[in-house]
Amino acid sequence: MKILFLITALCSLLVISYSCASSDSTDEAMTTDKNQEGSVENDTGSVESIPPGEFVRVADMKNFRIQHSAILLDDGKVLVMGGKGLGEKTSHNTYIFETAEIYDPSADTWTFTGMMAINRYAFASGLLPDGRVIVAGGRGILTHAYPDAEIWDSATGEFESIAPMLEPRDEVKGAVLSDGRFFVSGGYNVNYGLRKTAEIYDPATDTWTEISSLVDKRANHTVTVLQDGRVLVTGGGKEDGPYLKSAEIYDSESDTWTTAAPMAISRHSHTATLLQDGRVLVVGGRGKRNNAEIFDPAANTWTRTPDLSEPRGQHTAVITTDGKVIVAGGMGNRSSVELYDPETDTWTALANMEEPRFRHVSVVLNDGTVLVAGGNGKEMILAEVEKFTR
After folding, report:
1. Less packed terminus of the chain by CB within 10 Å, N or C?
2. Where does residue 171 rank: exposed (0-12), middle (13-18), buried (19+ CB within 10 A)?
3. Tell me, what DSSP letter sits at residue 122?
4. CA torsion, points 58, 327, 273, 105, in degrees to nearest 10?
5. CA distance 198 to 223
């Protein structure tokens, strides 16, 4: 009996010890998992951080597109227009679209809307105060610049031709001014080369008015409406160089251009983003630019930020609701994405896109997610679309 009692007691003690050990191991594993949230162990046993955010594929566009345009509409949907893509062959082995389609984030669907009067890419576009969308210029099937302009009306879903620009322009940049008029500057014209002229469209009178010319001829530059209503223009130049590091500011009230302080380096196919504090973040450009700088209109000064992780040109840059800037993709089929925080002057790597791309479009949707559509990818021109959530 004593022997049986001792055996029973020993077994109970072993069970308790095993249970405690198992509990300790579980707690340790849970603690380890908790401590390594947002990280992963690599082959060497060291822990690497996982870039924040997530890209998820959504419905493809109806057409494959590069050098197209995307506008966030007042109802939260996205209008995508024109561009070059895959389709009926032309002399340049690509198709130039006159089509437009609308993305509905709530249904994850693309629907064709009315077609533009002409096939075009590399054109200027903007959202007018009344919710209509204007497009102007660009290049078409005959490979020369257009003066043609038109307006898409959300009420009818159709494009209507309006008065043409005073001169043809492609690789042109435009912006809606604070008074509701549409501003275009520079661009390229096969007959005259780079342009330094500029003009403004008044929707109330359906007229284009020539304004004072820029100081420098430029195409593939940036156009940014500042908080005080003036317009900042930076960089640009010929497709194969030389590129410009000059900047200038247009005042519509006095119809004058003022030379601003030059950027630190020349830039072409870069981006310019208006920050919430009124400064402008300029990023990248052709020629393996992996740097960025910020323009302060009040001081007329440029300040370099820390360098990006990779060179970027023909990428996209959008500002989020909390004032940070998301920069995605770029020449060289980059899938990487970075976030700039103006408060800390830091760049943070985010999750990679599902598809590497450049010459794409990015739009911040009303729910704060970022829609990325089209562009050049590993498999030529893309119809693929993805959405980023931080």
Report:
1. N
2. buried
3. S
4. 10
5. 12
| Token representation of residue 340 | 């700039």
C-alpha span between 59 and 337 (Å, rounded): 21
What is the rounded CA–CA span in Å between residue 255 and residue 252? 5
* pLDDT of 46 above 90: no
Residues 6 or more apart whose CB falls under 8 angstroms from that of 225 comprise 175, 176, 177, 178, 231, 274
Using the structure block, give the residue that is written with the tokens 């052709």: 286
pLDDT over 90 at 234, yes or no: yes
DSSP 359: S
Task: Look at the chain and count its residues.
Answer: 390
According to DSSP, residue 85 is labeled E
Is pTM beyond 0.85? Reply is yes
Query: H or E element: which one contains 173?
Result: strand 173-176
Separation between Cα atoms, residue 113 and residue 45, nearest integer Å? 54
Longest dimension (CA), the chain: 111
pLDDT tens by residue, 102-122: 999 999 999 999 999 999 999
Alpha-carbon gap, residue 330 to 375, rounded angstroms:
10
How many distinct helices (H) and strands (E) make up the chain?
1, 36
